[in-house]
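SAMPLE LOG
Freezer: B-3
Tube label: C17
Construct: single chain, 208 aa
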Amino acid sequence: MDNPYGPDTISYLTLGQESSAEFTDRGSRFIGFAFPMTDEDTFKERLKELKREHPKAVHHCFAYRIGLDGNRFRASDDGEPSGSAGRPILGQIDSRRLVDAAVVVVRYFGGTLLGVPGLINAYKTAAAFALQVGPSVERPIEDQYEVEFDYTLMNEVMMVVKRHGCSVIRQEMQLFCLLRIGIPRRSRIECVSQLENIRGVECRPARV
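STRUCTURE (predicted):
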């Protein structure tokens, strides 16, 4: 996928909640589960749960994409012919420009072989249905910054942080404080300027 989220992009699309939908072809049932996730461990836990919930399914195929750089993704055919399941599922995630999103399609075999074209269509359709049921949501892209200041400046700093809807990622609160915050890209310049205008505050891009 060509990365649609460049340095000037201010928001991204992901899933707001889990959703599911079913597609049937010649007796085989394909149940798609679409859900938000931000790391591989979260995905692995949900995949384990789905395997426990559907122990008689013959395949648990999936795809996911994590992060805005476009480099963290995976597609699995789980025993189906190569390229017939995971890639079509990933294609549906990418066609909607979603990140931090996963789709698992559970298959119950109906007794009739579908062939590779039939499988591609079935997995693609089940993924598409599951993604359509749960609408995507737009979230702000944040750039991480570190803010250093004396403890007496805490109220002034936090007023700016809250005013711009920043997220606090990490904080070390002593006589001298260090905050790592995520600043929404749409208001980054204004927010950094206001922080730097507080005498005694140092604000710099965080090393990720």
